[in-house]
Every structure is written in structure tokens, then in C-alpha cells.
Design goal:
241 residues; alpha+beta; Fumarylacetoacetate hydrolase, domain 2; five-stranded mixed sheet; 5 helices; 14% helix; 31% strand; binds manganese (II) ion
Length: 241
């Protein structure tokens, strides 16, 4: 007799993000958008589209759900000498969608709420991969690479376009942009993802970062803000040995 219901290694807990007002958001997948602000695309040496008609398709990559960090501290990761910050709007999905095209209202209706995230990046590894046309995983999808704030239900955020995303490091302003500068806005991105994946309640989407990405050192304190609505605090701790 075999007992296939018996786990042969311990099952790990589902990563969760706290929600303002109570409860927590169990994380299924973390989708990330590359090059979604023209100023950042240019600083990375990529061409920025001159108009919506020329923007082509967004660049997507994923991080594992257990890359989430909610405790206010992420360890400086191994294998890099160039850890960089990317402050991003995070969209939390509250409904499933079968694969297919979504109109703007249907896309917006999937949104549970918003948070802030740091897309921590081992830039040296990402740059080496890009140069060889290899995948970005080691540069992007490592342990503790996705610090996030609490989530705010969408009804408490309202219209995103006039909101300003910013990041200070040790009190100095490093990144700042209005969200009307997104090349693909939230319905655009959810529609594009939905043509490629079955979206699920529990998915998070990191929407891409504006210009100003730069190296971090152990001991640095990052503070992200979305106006006065959301704050993300993350200290970079010494490497774990
Ligand atoms: Mn990013």
C-alpha cells in the first residue's frame, strides 16, 4: 500500500501580505513588467517607444512567490557586487480570469488593491545575461528579492494616474515619477498578461520602475511612497552567511 497523501518533505507556508483594515493576501504568483517607464528604458540603454502605437508588447518576467519580504528588512544577496533598487507600484488581483483578451473594465475589475514593491535586482548578473541573450532569473528571481508594503484596497486609492511614486535611500531622493508616465497602465498590463497566463486571485504584478535605479549597500534604508497613501520601508541587512 502506498499513501500518496503523506508529504515526504514539510509543505512550506503560503507567503502572505498584510492588508490595511485587516486580513492578509495569500500570494500565488509574482509577475513583473520590464521597461514600463520611458526614462528608465533609456537609462538601461533600451529604446523608449515614441508613442502608444509604437510601444509593441510589454516585457514580462516572474519572481517566485516566496521572494516576498514583509518584515522591513532584506538581506544583501549572495553572488553579486551590484544590488540595485527599483521602486514599483504593485497590483494585487482579487479575481481569477481565464486566459484571453480583457477589455479595460474587465481588467480593472480583477484588481483587489495596490501596494508598493522593491524589485531588488542583481544588476551585474542581469546585465551579463542580457549581453548573452540569456534569461534574467538569477538577476531578478532570488531569495528576498521582493520586499512589499501592506496592500490598500482599490477603493481607498482611486485614480492612479495623478499619483506620484518615489523612493528615498538614507533620506536622499533616488526615484520619482507620476504614474501617468507608465507606458502600459494597469488595464493594459492585465490584458497583456491575460493573453499569456491564467490570472488568479492571489497574483501580484510589479508594474515597472522609473529612472534613478542605483546600487544599494548593507545598512541602507529604503523608503518608498505613493503620495501619502502607502509607504514601504526596507533596510538592507548584511549578507546571511
Ligand atoms: Mn523592475
Amino acid at each position: 500500500m502506498t499513501d500518496a497523501s503523506r508529504d515526504v518533505v514539510p509543505a512550506l507556508p503560503c507567503p502572505r501580505v498584510p492588508v490595511r483594515g485587516g486580513g492578509s493576501f495569500p500570494v500565488h504568483r509574482i509577475y513583473c513588467v520590464g521597461r514600463n517607464f520611458a526614462d528608465h528604458a533609456r537609462e538601461m540603454g533600451a529604446a523608449a517607444p515614441a508613442s502608444k502605437a509604437e510601444r509593441g508588447q510589454p516585457v514580462f518576467f516572474l519572481k517566485p512567490a516566496d521572494a516576498i519580504v514583509t518584515g522591513g528588512e532584506a538581506a544583501y544577496p549572495p553572488g553579486t557586487a551590484d544590488l540595485q533598487h527599483e521602486i514599483e507600484l504593485v497590483v494585487a488581483l482579487g479575481r481569477d480570469a481565464p486566459p484571453g483578451v480583457l477589455d479595460r473594465d474587465a481588467a480593472q475589475s480583477l484588481v483587489f488593491g495596490y501596494g508598493l514593491g522593491l524589485d531588488l535586482t542583481r544588476r551585474d548578473l542581469q546585465s551579463a545575461a542580457k549581453a548573452k541573450s540569456l534569461p534574467w532569473d538569477t538577476g531578478k528571481a532570488f531569495d528576498q528579492s521582493a520586499p512589499v508594503s501592506e496592500l490598500l484596497p482599490a477603493g481607498m486609492v482611486g485614480e492612479l494616474a495623478p499619483r506620484t511614486l518615489s523612493l528615498t535611500v538614507n533620506g536622499a531622493l533616488r526615484q520619482q515619477s507620476r504614474l501617468d508616465q507608465l507606458i502600459w497602465d494597469v488595464p493594459d498590463i492585465l490584458n497583456a498578461l491575460s493573453t499569456l497566463y491564467a490570472l488568479r486571485a492571489g497574483d501580484l504584478v510589479f508594474m515597472g520602475t522609473p529612472a534613478g535605479v542605483a546600487p544599494l549597500q548593507p545598512g541602507d534604508t529604503c523608503v518608498g511612497r505613493l503620495d501619502d497613501l502607502l509607504e514601504l520601508h526596507c533596510r538592507i541587512a548584511p549578507p546571511r552567511v
